[in-house]
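[Primary structure, fold]
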Amino acid sequence: MVEPVLELKGVERRYREAGGTVLTILDGADFKLHPGEMVALVAPSGAGKSTLLHTAGLLERPDGGEVWLKGK
């Protein structure tokens, strides 16, 4: 089997709002993308699509879980 080029394992992302409330955006997200695959993220506004992509691209660090790029 071909190794994924991108894999998210149990990724969590939270933001602290004014007043100390914690807002959970990603809660244990799993995802694999293999070479040659194309995917589309379709969800309502505010569902966490941009947060998922920012975390997958390592623009934001996950609060939990792992992001693997080409097995590293």
Q: What stands out?
A: The chain has one helix and three strands. Helices lie at 49-56. Residues 11 and 65 are 4 Å apart (CA to CA). The two ends are 17 Å apart (CA to CA).
